[in-house]
Specification:
The structure is a homotetramer. The first copy, chain A, is α/β, with parallel strands linked by helices. In chain A, 26% of the residues lie in helices and 21% in strands. Chain A has 12 helices and 22 strands. Chain A has helices spanning 15-18, 24-37, 97-105, 120-124, 136-139, 162-176, 200-213, 231-237, 251-264, 298-311, 326-332, 335-338; strands spanning 10-13, 45-48, 109-115, 118-119, 140-141, 152-155, 180-184, 218-221, 240-242, 273-275, 279-280, 283-284, 292-293, 315-318, 345-352, 356-363, 369-375, 381-386, 404-405, 413-415, 418-423, 428-432. Chain A has a 9-stranded parallel β-sheet. The first copy, chain A, has a 5-stranded antiparallel β-sheet with strand order 15-16-17-22-19, covered by helices on one side. Chain A has a 3-stranded antiparallel β-sheet with strand order 4-6-5. In chain A, β20 and β21 form a beta hairpin. The two termini of chain A are 38 Å apart. Chains in contact: A-B, A-D, B-C, C-D. The A-D interface holds A 68-69, 120-121, 123-124, 126, 137, 140-143, 145-148, 150, 191, 193-194 and D 68-69, 120-121, 123-124, 126, 137, 140-143, 145-148, 150, 191, 193-194.
């Protein structure tokens, strides 16, 4: 049985800025920044994303994001290790132990990305499974691959050695001090159109292996879109699962997230967090060979943060923290908004069309209530809504209500039970009622 | 905003026995039986199913279930009326008023089936919409039809006169005293493969029209399978929606219902009841020209009832009540099982494979807890489960537990926290823990 | 068994200019122009397109292209008749007889458009089938409709009266002197995604009815895209079938036609002509409320004509003939190109990519050979091809070849067996070798 | 440009009897039998099917048909070689040269099966491409695999070294004396549902490599079902392509082949032979661990042979020739039927429904004509057909016709132009007219 958390995970992930290339020094610098400037606002996880085991990651950028048949760090049991040339403290077989220890010393938590399965190279080399008489070629499924990354084969269902492999892998990570595992190519195995949740058994093996460690490890599934008809399975075995393909800093993707949140709104709960993906803020894409600023306007950034929070998504920063500007930083310290990802707050879509969306949110116990007015248009838009029509507010009284717009601190215009606000292009007005 | 009920609706529906042919006398007889023998166990709705407006229903059985371009009863505003030759009390424009009154006099509630949309004949005849200057041909959508029934055209989205039509229709039904509306060709408009929820706007119009009546009317959507990605919409506007095509008395359909309940288990709540369809018991199919006994064995019947109840489905009898045998009747009076469809009980699938399924259920407030062991095999099967592994029972204590099998009253075998039972072919053992 | 023609049909169709609104006078004027200016180049069919039976066609343009439940001309047997207010010579039940006679008097042939099936109104009114004891409601299939036009119901498969209805309909048309029937909503019944050739039996009934008339009537099926896996069925029963949705004067549609011709290239034969749809030239769209010039450049027009001819498509002008400019007219009189739609010429795609396409064509008996170089780019492009590599020219000798560009009469540059030409943007160079 | 043959290929293939396990001695024995008993009837190709390069093929039958990460014979350039333990004459790097030479010495032709692509092991080991400076890991596409066989990676499109790899491979095979290449996982790459002809570029590379050898090599593509919309591509680059999944000795598959032949009937031509797959006759399945007799009745066998011949399919025996019984052998020597697979004969379906099918066949030059009546029912069935209604016989005269049933030599009953015959269950009556 999976562990329950008190709120959706909040943290930083290396991918949006570093792609496959992040190094130990860079992780440490971001962790230090988080401890100094963001921890107090609730941010805590520091996550090293994809291919930290690759020695030559990023060296054939013009041809490949992920070099096929590349140069990887692996122990004698088919378990991937940090590339020592990139993570020097891992020398001598210490893996991510020293780095995790450092992150913990800052009062933060440490996470890593993995691809589901076992390295193809381990299978072709017939490596043994740790602590067993089985071999990688016996548990690797040569017909189960990832569409976009060439490193792994899936692990077969129900064959001897399979659970033992995952146990040995996750046990090693737990020994290192890992607090968060983002497993990729598993939430939607998009190569397999007829069976896009083809690795459900690997989710179960991972969940079981995590439970055996006794350690409090978050299990995050990627990539999306997650399958709504398997919601019950994600909820049973994982803590968060991506409801979208990779999200980047484009308005069309942001507007589309409203559709996705509509779909998943009834599935946010204690220890279960449908995941809108990283927040692409500040500087981005250096590892992709093209360092640049986010393309989201400040209004769009507030729209994004408000939606993620009112919906209850995990919040993972996709940014180089050490290069954050003051204005972005102030958004990320807005605890009046960020607190909504805690259990107890329930968000619901009130309305959505091509022009706008409205979300409500209330707290089960405290009775706090919020209303967010989102404007999809490219011009400023006067929006009104009758609070008495909001299902979540059924039976509540709106007399003497003095709504405050949370981001700005301004007061709202209200007539009878109708709230009206002028919402900027692609922006939001977010009211505490 | 839809009304909330205290439990999933329970009642009787004319379809499984009468198809399109039920008459007033037959409805009355079934209602009287319900009042005398079933009301006490919680059964209350008496529902007249499809084509009560057809004067010639059933007369071309060898060619059609639904006669195309047939002889229908309709008022001057395109509103279908009961066929007077079948429902004599409706003469003089009184509609179902007298019949509803009679059902109410027995302490029961009265329901009817409708097809979404407006009669094709009304559109071809350019009939006026009641109380407006609009006409049927202006609101009927000639490209929106039902795949299997020829009577209606869908109503267009957002055209003047459309909501007014539904208001006049539902208002008339409310005046008659209707308590339950089963609307068909709306939950899954299966003709439209690219858009199987193509009549979502008609659901909204119906919900709005019902609210305007001020009457407590259940809105039931048919046929299934409902679309899991539109769960939030059903939940917002309707009380029950079919999660399956027509269910009949076949084991394969019954076993398949476990898959459907798995899918929808997290969607049962206050006023929201995913619907497993009618219970085909006792005598069936006279209206189809072939009166016969249900093909479900007694064990299968208990399996069916236990699943519907532990899941939380509405319970609608598909049987000729006046011909029920004693043994079937006793199942339908088993309040220890039937009570589980009330709000507060939460059912969850524990396990499902090709051989068996296990469901747990507990009450949020009382702490009652149940475990159902279902055997899919054609032989008797010894099933065991560790109660400590059941997620719903997390943190509960199993010391001194004395489980009782609810259907039989027998005591269970238990060792440590492991419950073991011998389950008959296609049968269930249902324990109160 | 269908009749065989000597070449793909060539003619004029009223749709692109008039939509549903063409009148007798307008048809006559176009026919007169064809006789005077185009007949000599091989153009012969004059076709009245959709809803000639509608008295109010075009009067609710802002809401509908096809008015639902509109005002139609129909005889007592459910057979549609020309609207007398638009086709005065049809008064007195003479149908299209007088108009056909006039077209014939010009040395041309006369065609009409029909929708498959029987008028919905005939079914709802229970009209008799001519010469039988059956009724429209018995042969109409209320679940078989057209997605985009509200006039008809499909005719059932294998019921008494069905073939008789088509016989009476086509017999009447033959009596009128109809030479060409374009039947719509039949080649791809796009409402029925799971069965887009759902009216195959109506094609067979039409073919049979035509054969019974003893008259030489072309059967043209619409709309596309035709289904390549039903190629054998179209070839057996019809003369031409649309391989595309409606084609209009847009480059993207024109470029896409190359993909469609690739697909169908092996299916052009004697009496079997996959149809690229009308040629939208000169003035267009008056009936749609927006008279305008074609958007195709002169180079694109030559590309279009060359592709249609080298592929072997029927050629139907979608233009107001009386308003044709001299330059367009000269393209339509280019018999050196138009002659390729005759039987005996075999066209094949040599190459196609995102930048260009190459087609070859040769005559089975005369040995004539052609090569067309098409440029998809928006700039002028130097294209070369080795004639020895063209499969169709296998074994031919290219010594002393003096290729001539057909449209311009210019000579080509050739080196060894390599032909080179500078092709204008979206243009073609078409060589006789 | 591909070579043209005079008829569809006829031969023997090791798969149906030996699966992956055939040895040199077994191939020789079958070749000798063919030379002695079948050559005269037109049979000539001897084809070694899948995994002749595997040293341990068949040793883990209970777990795998194709052992993943198994023990394969490969040269230093990633080119698979015959396993010496199974094909002793291949020792010393002579490959299939000696075996091909022996087959040729019998007056027969020699063929092999290959999987498209390059061995996974070659890519993981970074082996060089013969005669180039490129390496296997540069041309192998790790995301292009076979769903059911774990041996290969697809070769990338348009990368340096790719064509060179295929040239070196096919060149080596040509040097060995190979006359026939059956390439698998290429006609329908069924793993890739969105793009089932994903290896079209490998077909082109193979065709090009074959042409470069100057040798007359048949290119056969597998598995099916081939994609009808890519018919033109198969026809341009290959000689035969499978129109079905693996065909086995089951009536349902045989009846389904009529549907497939209907679909492909217009695509049989000179050098282009849609392939109905092997003929599972005599003894089968020893290599699958279960030697048995074919399940097809003698009538079904005649039905199969007649359909394959009248349609014009390649004929490849799937049988242990040395164990053929006399009766089966006599069917395989029936040249009056077998000759129909030669160019010049044109077969067409006349009719098909759930009970029966009728095919006609005539020769373009000689005017020979045939009619086959197939009975799908499980009882004997009297079938009649009017020869004047057969499109292929249009204009022919049937006076004084004395039809002979080809298999039996009996005369047919005929009245006017109507041919009548009593056809046995699942059987055929095949008339020469």
């Amino acid at each position: 049985m999976k562990r329950i958390m008190k709120k959706a995970p909040m943290g930083w992930n290396s991918y949006d800025y570093y792609d496959t290339t992040v190094t130990e020094a860079e992780v440490r610098a971001n962790a230090e920044f988080m401890a100094a400037h963001l921890k107090q606002a609730g941010w805590e996880y520091v996550v090293v994303d994809i291919e930290w085991y690759s020695r030559d990651a990023g060296t054939q950028r013009e041809k490949y994001q992920y070099i096929p048949f590349g140069d990887i760090e692996m122990d004698g049991y088919g378990r991937l290790q940090p590339a020592v040339n990139r993570f020097p403290s891992s020398a001598g077989g210490r893996g991510f132990g020293p780095l995790a220890e450092y992150v913990h010393s800052l009062g933060l938590k440490f996470g890593i990305h993995i691809m589901r399965g076992i390295p193809r190279e381990a299978a072709h080399r017939h490596l043994p499974i740790y602590g067993t008489g089985y071999f990688a070629n016996e548990i690797a499924d040569p017909s189960s691959i990832c569409k976009w990354n060439p490193d792994m084969y899936g692990v077969r269902r129900g064959v001897p050695g399979a659970q033992e492999y995952y146990d040995s892998l996750i046990g090693m990570y737990a020994d290192w001090g890992v607090d968060f595992i983002k497993c990729d190519d598993i939430c939607n195995t998009n190569m397999y159109r007829d069976n896009p949740y083809s690795a459900a058994h690997e989710v179960e093996m991972l969940s079981c292996a995590i439970e055996k460690t006794g350690r409090d490890i978050v299990l995050s599934l990627s990539p999306g879109p997650a399958l709504i008809d398997r919601a019950w399975h994600y909820e049973k075995y994982a803590h968060m699962w991506r409801i979208t393909d990779d999200f980047w800093d484009r308005w069309d993707l942001l507007q589309d997230m409203f559709r996705r949140c509509e779909l998943w709104q009834n599935h946010v709960g204690e220890g279960s967090y449908p995941d809108c993906d990283m927040l692409p803020l500040g500087k981005l894409s250096k590892g992709f060979g093209n360092e640049r600023d986010t393309c989201l306007t400040k209004e769009e950034q507030k729209t994004m943060l408000t939606l993620w929070c009112v919906f209850g998504s995990p919040l993972m920063l996709g940014a180089e923290l050490t290069k954050l500007d003051e204005e972005t930083l102030s958004l990320l310290q807005k605890t009046e908004v960020l607190k909504l990802v805690a259990n107890g707050y329930v968000g619901r879509q009130v309305k959505r069309d091509d022009c706008c969306a409205i979300w409500s949110c209330y707290h089960k116990d405290t009775g706090e209530r919020y209303l967010a007015l989102f404007n999809f248009r490219t011009d400023s838009y006067s929006m009104s809504w009758d609070l008495a029509e909001v299902e979540q507010f059924r039976g509540m009284c709106f007399d003497e209500m003095k709504p405050e717009e949370v981001w700005s601190g301004e007061s709202a215009v209200i007539q009878g039970t109708v709230l009206t606000a002028q919402v900027p292009p692609h922006g939001v007005k977010f009211f505490k009622l």
